């Protein structure tokens, strides 16, 4: 039994759908019977599992927890040629925040709650309990891998797996196409949410605002979307504890307007973010 097959069987026994990867971290291509989705297009399915054919087809959807499938003769060639093992996070009830560089890791450490962490070749995988839609390049060096996506298995890592936070869900949310109009005045501090500030120290908030300003300033394209996602991330982290003030909001608006955004768009983006989060 190959080392990769042994790893896949271990994952399957833990309820984690596994599949083989070729060199270059690519899944095995569809078999001749499924070429060009002739079989009906397994990728359109929203649940993991083997295709109707016996071979490991259709990328992430080939992930399975069935040891008989993984150890079947039809999969033998794939395991002989496999360069690594992948798993389907969504099928295991998880979401992976893929951090590709040091800047992305620094952002996560200041913005996201601590969770199980796995070291990768270039960065880290932060794994949360819960699923969401997968999305690439939600910010520089950050991808989200959950439903209908696969991630390379690099071990269980360290730390306790935390629930999927709103701050991660917010990264994949696009600004509504129809903006909700609101007065152009800045909102008052968010009070009355009965939330206790978990940050304890104003340093955490100040650092978060500074990183949000940096994210907006660094945007070279899709400025509208970047501003909205940044507002959403700030509110998802700080919006319920009452620690945001007009001064903090003004800093974000100033950074956005320096990139060419109008006061009206800033207000609309802020209001839309409040509405999305139910604040």
Characterise the protein shown here.
The protein is 36% helix and 14% strand. The strands form 2 sheets. Strands 4, 5, 6, 7, 8 and 10 form a 6-stranded mixed beta sheet that branches. The chain starts with a helix and ends with a helix. The protein has helices at residues 3-13, 67-70, 73-81, 102-111, 166-171, 202-218, 223-238, 246-258, 263-277, and strands at 18-22, 26-27, 84-87, 94-99, 116-119, 124-129, 135-139, 142-145, 151-152, 162-163. The chain has 9 helices and 10 strands. Helix 6 runs antiparallel to helix 7 and helix 7 (223-238) packs across helix 9. The model is unreliable at 178-195 (pLDDT under 50). A hairpin with a 3-residue loop joins strand 1 (18-22) and strand 2 (26-27). It is an alpha+beta fold.
Summary tags:
279 residues; alpha+beta; 10 strands; 14% strand; elongated
Describe the largest sheet: 6 strands, mixed
Give Rg in angstroms: 22 Å
Percentage of residues assigned to helices: 25-40%
Provide the low-confidence segments as ranges. 178-195
End-to-end distance: 54 Å
* Total beta strand runs: 10
Order of helices and strands: HEEHHEEHEEEEEEHHHHH
């Amino acid at each position: 039994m190959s080392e990769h097959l042994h790893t896949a069987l271990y994952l399957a026994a833990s309820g984690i759908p596994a599949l083989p990867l070729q060199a270059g971290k690519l899944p095995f291509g569809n078999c001749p019977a499924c070429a060009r989705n002739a079989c009906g297009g397994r990728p359109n399915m929203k649940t993991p599992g083997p295709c109707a054919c016996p071979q490991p087809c259709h990328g992430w959807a080939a992930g399975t927890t069935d040891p008989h499938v993984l150890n079947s003769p039809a999969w033998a060639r794939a395991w002989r040629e496999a360069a690594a093992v992948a798993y389907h996070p969504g099928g295991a009830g998880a979401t992976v925040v893929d951090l590709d560089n040091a800047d992305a890791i620094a952002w996560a450490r200041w913005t996201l709650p601590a969770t199980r962490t796995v070291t990768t070749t270039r960065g880290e995988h932060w794994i949360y309990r819960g699923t969401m839609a997968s999305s690439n390049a939600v910010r520089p060096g950050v991808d989200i891998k959950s439903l209908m996506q696969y991630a390379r298995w690099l071990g269980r890592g360290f730390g306790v797996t935390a629930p999927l936070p709103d701050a991660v869900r917010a990264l994949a949310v696009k600004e509504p196409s129809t903006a909700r109009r609101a007065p152009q005045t800045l909102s008052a501090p968010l009070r009355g949410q009965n939330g206790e500030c978990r940050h304890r120290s104003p340093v955490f908030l100040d650092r978060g605002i500074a990183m949000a300003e940096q994210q907006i300033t660094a945007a070279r394209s899709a400025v509208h979307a970047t501003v909205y996602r940044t507002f959403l991330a700030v509110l998802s982290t700080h919006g319920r504890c009452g620690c945001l003030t007009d001064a903090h909001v003004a800093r974000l608006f100033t950074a956005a307007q320096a990139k060419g955004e109008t006061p009206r768009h800033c207000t609309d983006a802020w209001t839309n973010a409040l509405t999305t989060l139910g604040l």
